[in-house]
Amino acid sequence: MNTGPLQASAVPTQVYFEDIELKVPLETPGMTLTEAHVALFNGLAPTTAAREAGLVPDLLPLCLSSGLGWRVPRPPLAVLAFMGFEWRFLLPVRVGDTIRSVSISHTKRSMREGGVVIEERRIVNQRGETAQAGKLTLLVAKRPRP
Amino acid sequence: MLFFRSVDLQPAVFFEDLELGREYLSPGRTITETDVVLFAGLSGDYNVLHTDAEHMKGSLFGERIAHGLLGLAIQQGLASRGEPAAAHGSFAGIKWKFKGPIRLGDTIHVRSRITGLEEGSVAGHGLVTLERQVINQRGEVVQEGETAHLLERRKP
């Protein structure tokens, strides 16, 4: 048991640019997609599109992966800005599917203000199939100077 | 996108009905604090950028800003009210840039243009590429990118 003084400063509350390890996959917990997710999403961002029953909106899995990404065994990334992404829709995603997100940081480029990280992300369903996949470009803060 | 046809609007379009260079304009929508709070709850993304007004006073933006993906989701809906509705199709892919913040109270609309009409990878379908810009009330492009859609051809 650690009986020494609490060293709050030693416990990182965020992962900064310098802390990011490349090529280490991070897998989130799963999320079962429900009609409630679809209703909330369509309430927030309605389209006039008619939709095949049971399919979830195309952009819902990507949106949920942004929150799932906070639930990995690592403090959250100190994201300053989401700069852009490329994304492919590979398989239909349906209500009742359980999705998780698997990410790997594969490039880091240091800038004066923070650094740019390219992350590969996949949305995987309960059968292990990749339903959607792409690359995200993030601007991440550097560790604050003491 | 070139969406599935809604029941009451215009007649459905097929791949052959589309014309290169054709432009579409969506209605506008004001992005509110409620939108941002609901999106944080739905997505689970509680980044301080979107949820901590006090922290954001001292930031580059000076206030909370909308999630980039909220803007993306909302533009998808807005675009569906400006672009023609397809008889049948699917969203194939997207390349997107978040160029500037969407602030609470900003009003955005979408301008889209058909930039590609090609053979699709699915039989009986063509691949449509659109350039889309999300524009705020000051005329600034806050998001932009390219979306790709597989669209059904007319039966011979």
Structure commentary:
The complex is a heterodimer of chains A (146) and B (156). Chain A has helices at 35-44, 60-68; strands spanning 26-27, 31-32, 79-89, 98-110, 115-124, 130-140. Chain A is mainly beta and 146 residues long. Chain A has one domain: Hotdog Thioesterase (Thiol Ester Dehydrase, Chain A, Roll). In chain A, strands 1, 2, 3, 4, 5 and 6 form a six-stranded antiparallel sheet that branches. Chain A starts with 25 loop residues before the first strand and ends in a 6-residue tail after the last strand. Chain B contains four helices and eight strands, in the order βββααααβββββ. The mean pLDDT of chain B is 91. In chain B, the strands form two sheets. In chain B, strands 2, 3, 5, 6, 7 and 8 form a six-stranded antiparallel sheet that branches. A two-stranded parallel sheet of chain B has the order 1-4. In chain B, β6 and β7 form a beta hairpin. Chain B is of the alpha+beta class. Chain B has one domain (3-152): Hotdog Thioesterase (Thiol Ester Dehydrase, Chain A). The A-B interface holds A 37, 40-41, 43-52, 57-59, 62-64, 66-71, 76, 79, 81-89 and B 1, 3-7, 9, 35, 38-39, 41-47, 49, 67-70, 72-74, 76-77, 80-81, 85, 90-98, 145.
